[in-house]
Design brief:
The structure is a homotetramer. Chain A has about 100 residues and is mainly alpha-helical. Chain A has helices at about 5, 25-55, 60-75, 75-95. The first copy, chain A, has one domain (about 10-95). Helices cover about 75% and strands about 0% of the residues of chain A. Chain A is flat, with a radius of gyration of 26 Å. The interface between C and D is medium-sized, with 32 and 34 residues. Chains A, B, C, D: It holds the Pfam family GapR_DNA-bd.
DNA sequence: CAAGCCGAGGAAATGC
DNA sequence: GCATTTCCTCGGCTTG
C-alpha cells in the first residue's frame, strides 16, 4: 500500500513530502494568501486610526469615543453584570 | 444659521455643544465609520482563520506556518532597525 | 446567618457572597498586596529615570542607551527563538 | 581646570571621548544599574501576576479587581468628569 | 474545554 | 500641546 493511497500512516506529517511533491506550492499559496489578508487588515487599522485623528481634530475626546464603541458592542446584560459585580466588590471593601 | 456662526465662540471644546448642534451628526458619522471598518477587519480575521483550517486539513502544521509568517515579517523589520541604530550612532557622534 | 446558609446556592461564583462573608477580607488583602507591589514597582521606575537623568547630565545620549539596553535584552531572546524554531522543524519532520 | 573637575566645557558630546577615557566605565555602570533595576521591576510584575492568579483561584473576577484598583487610583473628580462626557456623547447619539 | 501564553491594541508618561 | 515612546491590558491562540 502506498502513501498516496491512504496517506494515513504518517499521521499529521503528510506534507513532509512537500520537498518532493506539489505541496510546496500549496504551502506557498497558503502563506501568501494569509500575508495578503493581514496587509488588508493593517490597512484598515490605519484607516481607523485616521478617523480617530480626525475626531480629535474636531474636538472630540478619543478615549470617550472608544468607550462608546465598546459599549455599543456589549450586550446590555453584560454591562449590567459587570456593574453589579463591581458594586459587590466595592461594598465588600466599604468603598 | 451656519455652524460657523453659532459654533465658533466656544474655543477648544466646540463639540461640547453636541447635545444641541450639528456635531451630533459628526459624532455619529465618526462612530459608524469606525464600526464599519472594524467589521471588515473582523471579517478578514475570519478569512485568515479559514485558511489556517484549510492548511491543517491539508496536513500542514499550523504552528510552523505561523512561525514562518512571523519570521518573514520580522526580517525586514530587523533590517530597518539596524539602519535606525546606525543613524542614531551617527548622530551621537555628530557625523 | 452563616456563609453556607446565604451564599452557597450561587454555584461557580462563590466569592459573590463577599458582601456577607469572610472573603471581603480576602479581597482586601489581595488588593492591598497588589497596590503595595505596584508602589514598589513605581519606585523602581523612578530610580531608573534618575539614572537616565544622571546619564544625560554626564553627556550621554539617553536614546542610545535605551537602544543598547534593548539590544542586550533582545539578543538572548533571539538565540532562544532560533532554537525553538529548530525544535519545531525537527518535530515537523519527525526527527 | 581639568575636564574631570567640571566636565562641562564640551557640552553634550563629552562621552564621545569614551573610546579613550574613563566614561566607558561610566556608561557600563549606568547600563548595569538600569538593567539591575529592571530585573527587580520584572520580578515585582511576576509577584503581582501571581496574586491575580491567586485571586482567580479564589473565585474572584480579575478584570473587576483591576477596575477597582484603577478606581482607587483616580481622583473622584476625574471619574465624574469622564462619566459626564460619556453621558453627553450618549445623548448626542440618542443612546 | 480550561488555563497559560503571546501578541496586538489602547492608555499614559514624557520630550520636543 | 502634540507626537513619540513606553507600559499595561485584553483577547485570541495553543496546549494539555
Amino acid at each position: 500500500m502506498t502513501e498516496e493511497e491512504d496517506g494515513s500512516f504518517d499521521g499529521q506529517n503528510d506534507p513532509d513530502r512537500a520537498t518532493g511533491g506539489i505541496s510546496a506550492e500549496r504551502l506557498r499559496s497558503i502563506i501568501e494568501r494569509i500575508e495578503r489578508l493581514e496587509e488588508e487588515r493593517k490597512a484598515l487599522s490605519g484607516d481607523v486610526k485616521d478617523i480617530y485623528t480626525e475626531a480629535k481634530s474636531a474636538g472630540f475626546e478619543v478615549k470617550i469615543i472608544r468607550q462608546l464603541i465598546r459599549l455599543r458592542k456589549q450586550e446590555p446584560a453584560e454591562i449590567e453584570e459587570q456593574e453589579t459585580l463591581l458594586d459587590i466588590y466595592r461594598r465588600a471593601l466599604g468603598m
